[in-house]
């Protein structure tokens, strides 16, 4: 690894008690360039802008994918990543689907560890606080022919975050727009998937809904995801979540929730969720909870589901009654080293890694 540390740290201007989401970037970043059929050296360097041209293929044709993950600090100042090998596997799955070169485990894991270690002073400690890490790969070749790019950049940037408790939100069950299509790129973390979701989400916002529950593109009769999160539905004491597919992203938080629920002996079924079944359960008073899960906020609980002209209002459960809240606590306790780690999910970031990479 090529190491070029900043002589001009901005940490003095950073207030860990006043953090937004994604506003301040840590002192360093990782970059690595691909050309002539191979990846070059990984470089740790001061964070900042890079020179690019509008003729860069990534911005013209959307050959770009990313990951979202976090580093957590415990009360003793030790720092942990959470299941980083899952994100490594997924960024390569995304890269492959977008005809981009895969990266090595060393580039990804050592890059993350080096960056997190060198800027560990930027990682805030406390409830809801963490360092959000954004690895990404994008096409950098200067060319306008619509074809596979010959040049790419792999980069990792990071920003301290605070996820506040958010009130339950209202979501709209989509009966027209789709996030993903059969045979498409829905299970890749493709940058363009987000761009395509912004407009329908804006329309839902105008109708008073914070998010959309995406349904299948063919019939709009089955739940797929909620916003940029995986979705869980609780009917009586059984939790349902749809199986992953080429339209449903294989979320790390989703998989962790499933394993935690099983370990607690909660009845959890990974099977398609029919909108009609949810509407029927609501009518019978059996629909207890619906929530989304993802790395950024772990859980977003829903208070109402809009469906066609109806609004299905969900019951208000106490923290003790809610599976969403107790599973979130189980997960966060593992992530932040406040509980045992029975699954071996935490990966400690050792100090002074730069001396060894
Ligand atoms: C990133 C993402 C998720 C959540 O994945 P996590 O690994 O849990 O953060 C869910 N759905 C979509 C569409 C996503 O892009």
TrEMBL record:
Catalyzed reactions: L-valine + 2-oxoglutarate = 3-methyl-2-oxobutanoate + L-glutamate; L-leucine + 2-oxoglutarate = 4-methyl-2-oxopentanoate + L-glutamate; L-isoleucine + 2-oxoglutarate = (S)-3-methyl-2-oxopentanoate + L-glutamate
InterPro entries: Aminotrans_IV, Aminotrans_IV_CS, Aminotransferase-like, B_amino_transII, BCAT-like_C, BCAT-like_N
Pfam family, one: Aminotran_4
Record carries keyword Phosphoprotein: no
Keywords: Amino-acid biosynthesis, Aminotransferase, Branched-chain amino acid biosynthesis, Pyridoxal phosphate, Transferase
GO molecular function: transaminase activity
Cofactor names: pyridoxal 5'-phosphate
E.C. number: 2.6.1.42
Family indicated by similarity: Belongs to the class-IV pyridoxal-phosphate-dependent aminotransferase family.
Protein name per its UniProtKB record: Branched-chain-amino-acid aminotransferase
Organism placement in taxonomy: Bacteria, Pseudomonadati, Bacteroidota, Flavobacteriia, Flavobacteriales
